[in-house]
Design goal:
By secondary structure, the protein is an all-alpha fold. The chain contains 14 helices and two strands. It has a domain of 177 residues. It has a two-stranded antiparallel ribbon. Strand 1 and strand 2 form a beta hairpin.
């Protein structure tokens, strides 16, 4: 497969991160339209908030073939690539663990204010996983010392942690980053083993989807999960499959078949989702196969649209203002943790009219755009996460 980086992937990642920051800010608003929110576990349906996370999983998959092939083409062995995969997974799991425990923290029993704990957590992540361009910062501070400082901070935060039920830090669930980490681990290793064999990747997608079905009807006769719901793995692997389909068609000079092929795949997934809806419903919280496949179909259609605009028509300038969300996505995701904590410490609040209805939605949109611009500013001074 030709290892070509597509502008559409970065743009789709940026748009998805913009939406993720937006929907994650909806908690601060009142009178939010129901279709923008997460649906309850017992509901059969989904809102915009339920589509964003699987779209991000799909994008993680889109990027895997390019990233791994780039390392192999530079002379890295499969063993070293595997270690890189494990290292990235470890980083995502650690960040996910701390973020989930932040949600369950007992601020009244904590040695420091919850907001300080939150800021120190985010700062530690930056110190440990910043994309240092040289061994020295400002020409005098060894980067290894900053990484050690980051780990010391995380150790301190873990030591003083008090959970809402009097418990210490624990795995309540893996968190957004943790789920991404586990799915990335499985799918990246799977791709490293299978390579660009489209039909084998397609078969793996089917097997994982059947494992997702097994979570509801026990096809195997017993419960079985690859650490987390197979729904998460399916979403990432479908992203890999999409990129490999592109590469195979590009290598044969048959890209005219890409859009029809991907539209066909998306229709197949969406039809499956609605056809099986009566069996288990559409639910993000329960990770039903219907939700999995419908969201995957939507993600593929979004990629097709952006591929046509950005890759075929080469129209990318319109997305320049959100580009930092596509190139420094993890940094962008982390920035609200600083923002919300600082706002709480400073005691700032907006008038009720600014957080209600349409005006509130505009506020959340502007907040998301501001976070992206701050991320871009940090990039320009060489501050940004890279795992």
């Amino acid at each position: 497969m030709k290892n070509q980086r597509l502008p559409s992937i970065d743009i789709l990642r940026a748009v998805t991160m913009l939406l993720m920051i937006f929907v994650n800010d909806l908690w601060s608003l009142t009178h939010v339209p129901h279709w923008l929110l997460h649906t309850a576990a017992e509901e059969d349906g989904m809102g915009l908030s339920d589509v964003v996370f699987p779209a991000f999983l799909f994008i993680v998959g889109l990027s895997i073939p390019h990233a791994l092939k780039a390392r192999l083409e530079k002379g890295a062995s499969k063993g070293s690539v595997m270690l890189h995969i494990l290292s990235r997974t470890f980083a995502l799991l650690v960040m996910g663990l701390f973020m989930v425990n932040l949600e369950n923290i007992d601020g009244a029993q904590l040695l420091i204010r919850k907001e300080y704990w939150q800021i120190l957590m985010a700062l530690a992540f930056m110190l440990i996983w910043n994309n240092y361009r040289s061994p020295m910062v400002f020409g005098v501070i060894p980067t290894v010392l900053l990484k050690i400082l980051g780990w010391i901070i995380l150790t301190f935060l873990a030591f003083i942690y008090q959970g809402a039920s009097g418990n210490w830090m624990m795995i309540h669930w893996w968190g957004i980053l943790g789920l991404i980490g586990w799915a990335y681990l499985l799918v990246a290793l799977l791709y490293l083993w299978i390579g660009d064999k489209v039909w084998w990747l397609a078969l793996a997608c089917i097997v994982l989807l059947l494992l997702n079905v097994n979570e509801f009807v026990r096809l195997l006769g017993f419960d079985f999960q690859l650490v987390i719901s197979a729904s998460t793995h399916v979403s990432v692997l479908l992203g890999v499959l999409t990129t490999v389909i592109y590469g195979q068609l590009a290598a044969k000079d048959q890209l005219k078949w890409l859009i029809p092929s991907l539209i066909g795949l998306s229709i197949l997934l969406i039809v499956f989702g609605f056809a099986t809806r009566l069996e288990w419903g559409i639910s993000k919280i329960r990770a039903t196969p219907s939700w999995t496949t419908i969201c995957a179909g939507i993600s593929i259609l979004a990629f097709v649209l952006l591929h046509f605009i950005a890759d075929v028509k080469e129209q990318t300038r319109w997305a320049a203002f959100i580009a930092p969300a596509g190139s420094s996505t993890l940094t962008c995701y982390l920035m609200p943790y600083f923002a919300y904590a600082f706002v709480a410490l400073l005691g700032w609040s907006l008038p009720a009219v600014m957080t209600d209805g349409v005006i509130g939605l505009l506020k959340s949109t502007l907040f998301a755009l501001l976070i992206i611009q701050v991320t871009g500013m940090l990039n320009r001074v060489q501050i940004g996460l890279k795992i």
